[in-house]
Design a protein that fits this description.
- This protein is of the alpha/beta class and about 190 residues long.
- The protein has a domain of about 100 residues: Rossmann fold (3-Layer(aba) Sandwich).
- Strands 2-3-1-4-5 form a 5-stranded parallel beta sheet.
- The longest helix has 17 residues.
- The chain binds BIS(adenosine)-5'-tetraphosphate.
- The site of BIS(adenosine)-5'-tetraphosphate (B4P) has 30 residues, from helix 1, helix 2, helix 3, helix 6 and helix 9.
């Protein structure tokens, strides 16, 4: 089973993807994690994306599609969770092509719905918790970058909701509840 977790920044895509990895043995493909790893590695690509990500903007389609292509061509999995990808219509079209090249298809798109106010609280809260614990704070986890991340989401990513709805692949899940409740709702969708 190959699925997409779609939703605004802080909706809980990464949080829920980790449960699916633990319980179903699926492979999580998080473009956010891949880009952060590139940033840490100090490669040329890492330097290019670091500033874009810190501002809260989207990294170019070319870079992100390249990262996903590399994974799909090399990793064998009993199902992929696309976490934070696609984020633009061009990425969605590319994913269709990449899956077809591998003889795979998309089984479900789960959209996590969360109010903007709660999203900002979660992200600012995560930054405060990390700082209090003496852990590194994500460069984009602050109110200013979050404004840009939300603007980017509504402008470039939210059109994907209609795109996948028209294909009959979209299911909306209330992402406002407790983490365990959201997890149960996703389980219901995938097993239903
Ligand atoms: P991502 O790493 O994908 O991060 P995200 O969308 O901000 O977070 P996510 O929805 O996974 O939330 P999480 O579970 O962490 O993207 C970061 C950046 O990378 C982007 O801004 C962009 O620059 C770049 N990028 C990534 N993919 C790209 C692409 N395809 N194209 C272009 N650029 C790309 O949860 C957040 C917090 O909420 C956590 O603290 C968590 O504990 C908490 N939480 C989660 N669920 C909760 C719940 N139900 N109740 C209470 N708290 C909850």
């Amino acid at each position: 089973m190959n699925i997409i977790l779609l939703g605004p920044p802080g909706a809980g895509k990464g949080t829920q993807a980790r449960f699916l990895v633990e319980e179903r043995g699926m492979v999580q493909l998080s473009t956010g994690d891949m880009l952060r790893a590139a940033k840490e590695s100090g490669t040329e690509m890492g330097q290019i994306v670091a500033d874009v990500m810190a501002r809260g903007a989207l990294v170019t389609d070319e870079i992100v599609i390249g990262l996903i292509r590399e994974q799909l061509e090399t990793v064998k999995a009993n199902g992929f969770i696309f976490d934070g990808f696609p984020r633009t219509l061009a990425q969605a079209d590319a994913l269709n092509d990449l899956l077809a090249e591998q003889g795979e298809s998309l089984d479900a798109v789960i959209e996590l719905e969360v109010d903007d106010e709660v999203l900002v609280q979660r992200i600012v809260g995560r930054a405060a918790e990390a700082a209090a614990a003496g852990q590194p704070v994500r460069a984009d986890d602050n109110a200013e970058s979050m404004k840009v991340r939300l603007m980017e989401y509504y402008k470039k990513t939210s059109p994907l909701i209609g795109y996948y709805y028209a294909k009959g692949q979209l299911t909306k899940v209330d992402g406002l509840g407790e983490i365990a409740d959201v997890k149960a709702a996703i389980t219901g969708v995938l097993d239903g």
